């Protein structure tokens, strides 16, 4: 099997993209999705969050919800809102958010290469979330939520995408959050082969976001192969829907921490304990770290600048060297008593897209006692962890801008 493959994409018909394209299914709750889809009968939210078309209070994991997704997708196809391309294609996909510009490739990615870790992972998955995606994919017989991938340095791919994206786009939509989504169809056989060969030459590519979608696609493939005579690589379920961007264009925002209490310590006792491992200085302005081993801390309406002592910096292990790991090992675990951030309800996480004001708000409200701003994880660090077959701490990366749902779907029939 090739590492990636073109496919006959299902996408909005000409002039219908504004009606269809929607935020990804996992960034909105049901109430938010219901509000965003109000007056928009062709919004992809009717497929990705179909409980919005059922009575309030409907369990989003009930069979009726998945059946409604299938019904809504079939209706959008039968009404001509969505159309499938006549031949297998790749697609260039550009995201623009403020000064961030990313141009990537929409492709089917090999399930076999996912299973053998050539498509590399860095997160654990939760069975309940996997089960949800399996049921959704099975019901609609399509993969509608793209997985965000990063590919290592590949000038040939970058050049092809730059050339393709200099032409008139086949879709250009600015979402209500201001992010611009632009798509170009790549149907030239020579270019398709060049891109396939270039990816085949790569040692590995990396999942940035979408571990549950990837794992679900693997489960779907394994189950359908049991009842199929097709060889590996011949069936549409042998591949899963992805958008691969050059790693150097991708932006990881900081993923910060807020803690409910000081573990029984007074503010002075807390700072005294921190000072054993960090240089602590007050700051007149909010602290956004600009380098590794540097942190901001907000407590009692005061910002502090924290720098980890040099003798505590370990650069040998890809996970241990992450700033999030260093903060956990030297402060959050030993001083605040939080050893498992996956299960401890005293800790919460705030994406850097919300700014430092988001941290101040949580503390000033009295909901949280202290907040920490953290230097953003670097793409090179993510790739190093994945190459070492390790798992990153929870909430290590926050990618922006987000891929939209409804731009291109991969049909499994």
Could you explain the architecture of this structure?
With 413 residues, this protein is α+β, with helices and mostly antiparallel strands. It folds into two domains: 4-251 and 400-411, no CATH class; 255-375, Conserved hypothetical protein from pyrococcus furiosus pfu- 392566-001, domain 2 (2-Layer Sandwich). The protein has helices at residues 17-20, 30-36, 45-48, 63-78, 111-115, 127-140, 155-164, 189-200, 211-225, 267-274, 323-332, 355-364, 379-387, and strands spanning 4-5, 9-12, 82-84, 90-97, 100-110, 119-120, 142-143, 147-151, 171-174, 180-186, 205-209, 239-246, 252-253, 255-259, 278-283, 294-299, 302-308, 347-351, 370-374, 398-399, 409-411. Strands 1, 4, 5, 6, 8, 9, 10, 11 and 12 form a nine-stranded mixed β-sheet that branches. The protein has a six-stranded antiparallel β-sheet with strand order 15-17-16-19-14-18, with helices on both faces. Strands 3-2-21-7 form a four-stranded antiparallel β-sheet. α4 runs parallel beside α6 and α6 crosses α9 (211-225). The longest helix is centred in the first third of the chain and has 16 residues, at 63-78. The mean pLDDT is 95.
Architecture blueprint of SSEs:
Layout: E1 4-5, E2 9-12, H1 17-20, H2 30-36, H3 45-48, H4 63-78, E3 82-84, E4 90-97, E5 100-110, H5 111-115, E6 119-120, H6 127-140, E7 142-143, E8 147-151, H7 155-164, E9 171-174, E10 180-186, H8 189-200, E11 205-209, H9 211-225, E12 239-246, E13 252-253, E14 255-259, H10 267-274, E15 278-283, E16 294-299, E17 302-308, H11 323-332, E18 347-351, H12 355-364, E19 370-374, H13 379-387, E20 398-399, E21 409-411
Parallel strand pairs: 6-11, 8-12
Antiparallel strand pairs: 1-5, 2-3, 2-21, 4-5, 4-10, 5-12, 7-21, 8-11, 9-10, 13-20, 14-18, 14-19, 15-17, 16-17, 16-19
Helix pairs in contact: 4-6, 6-9
């Amino acid at each position: 099997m090739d590492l990636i493959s073109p496919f006959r994409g299902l996408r909005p018909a000409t002039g219908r993209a504004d009606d269809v394209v929607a935020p990804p299914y996992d960034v909105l709750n049901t109430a938010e999705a219901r509000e965003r889809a109000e007056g928009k009968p062709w919004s992809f939210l009717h497929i990705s969050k179909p409980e919005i078309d059922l009575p309030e209070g409907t369990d989003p994991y009930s069979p009726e919800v998945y059946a409604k997704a299938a019904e809504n997708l079939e209706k959008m196809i039968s009404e001509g809102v969505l159309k499938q391309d006549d031949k297998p294609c790749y697609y260039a996909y550009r995201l623009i958010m403020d000064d961030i510009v990313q141009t990537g490739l929409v492709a089917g990615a090999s399930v076999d290469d996912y299973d053998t870790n050539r498509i590399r992972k860095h997160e654990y998955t939760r069975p309940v979330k996997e089960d949800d995606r399996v049921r959704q994919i099975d019901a609609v017989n399509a993969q509608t939520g793209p997985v965000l991938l990063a590919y290592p340095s590949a000038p040939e791919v970058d050049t092809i995408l730059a050339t393709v994206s200099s032409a008139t786009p086949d879709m250009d939509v600015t979402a209500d959050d201001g992010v611009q989504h632009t798509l170009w169809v790549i149907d030239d056989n020579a270019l398709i082969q060049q891109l396939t060969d270039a990816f085949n030459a790569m040692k590995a590519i990396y999942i940035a976001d979408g571990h549950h979608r990837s794992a679900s696609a693997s489960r779907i493939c394994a189950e359908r192969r049991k009842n199929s005579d097709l060889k590996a690589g011949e069936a549409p379920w042998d591949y899963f829907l992805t958008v691969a961007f050059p790693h150097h264009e991708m932006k990881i925002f900081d993923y910060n921490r807020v803690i409910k209490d000081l573990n029984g310590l007074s503010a002075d006792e807390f700072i005294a304990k921190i000072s054993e491992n960090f240089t602590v200085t007050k700051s007149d302005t909010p602290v956004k770290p600009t380098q590794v081993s540097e942190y901001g801390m907000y407590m009692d309406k005061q910002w502090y600048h924290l720098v980890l002592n040099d003798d505590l910096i370990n650069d040998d292990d890809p996970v241990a060297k992450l700033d999030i790991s260093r903060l956990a090992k030297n402060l959050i675990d030993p001083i605040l008593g939080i050893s498992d951030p996956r299960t401890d309800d005293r800790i919460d996480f705030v994406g850097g897209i919300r700014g430092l004001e988001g941290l101040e708000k949580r503390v000033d409200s009295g909901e949280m006692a202290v907040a920490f701003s953290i230097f953003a994880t670097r793409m090179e660090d993510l790739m190093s962890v994945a190459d070492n077959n390790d798992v990153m701490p929870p909430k290590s990366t926050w990618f922006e801008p987000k891929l939209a749902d409804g731009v291109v779907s991969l049909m499994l029939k």
